[in-house]
What we know:
Blueprint: H1 4-11, H2 23-27, H3 29-33, H4 45-74, H5 78-102, H6 107-113, H7 126-134, H8 150-161, H9 165-175, H10 197-208, H11 214-245, H12 257-263, H13 270-274
Helix pairs in contact: 4-5, 4-7, 4-9, 5-11, 7-8, 9-11, 11-12
Amino acid sequence: MSTPQDIVTREGAKLDFAQDMTYGDYLQLDALLSAQQPLSPVHDEMLFIVQHQTSELWMKLMLHELAAAMHALQAGEASLAFKMMARVSRIMAQLVSAWDVLATMTPPEYSALRPYLANSSGFQSAQYRCIEFALGNKNAAMLKPHVHKPELLAMVQAAFDAPSLYDIAIGQLAKAGLAIDAVHLQRDWTVSHTSSANVQAAWKAVYQNPQQYWNLYQLGEKLTDIEDTFRLWRFRHLTTVERVIGMRRGTGGTSGTGYLKAMLDVVLFPEIWQVRGEL
Length: 279
């Protein structure tokens, strides 16, 4: 019977890395795994840190994919954009399931940790704010938490000033010859898009004629997937917060669950949902 050592030897696995890059070198694991620095003696702080750090890594990838998808759409590379948009939805699904781990923290366990968080809060995540802005939920007040760090402010400001994914999608409707009012094509991108009968009529034409407008039809469904999973992400955040901290105010100064419930009412791509009632 072969021993584990026999198997490794037979497979020819490389074991000497004195002169070569290792898995840990490539992923910079020394830096990554030393970034968890609990401030308290509370056992559950490691869970809290890892949960939020891994979420930030997933959000970094999401922003990478969103930026590439928007560029591809504008360049007329619809199939490439759809691949990236599908990946965004999958990333959000990963973030939804991540709340299941944090939900194992009980209220007394969080209460022991809370004083060490001071005023830090996920509300202040620059990457999350860039995601919101890229998806069209623009709010100038959300720039203020980043004023003290010029490099972060520049990143968030750029996302705030730029057309959103949905603005670009509406531009694609116009490029396909659908009647889109000029107000939707040349406007102040720092203001959130509001529902328009004109845009809804264009999406209705797309959904009634999928063969004629196949790429736009697929675009509409990819947008639907993104908002669907984004809503689930927000909702799971709310239920986890309710479970762990109840109705207490958030560490960042918001009302906590009240703020999260209000955010559930925000609709990113309104006409995509409204048109469904007309089909």
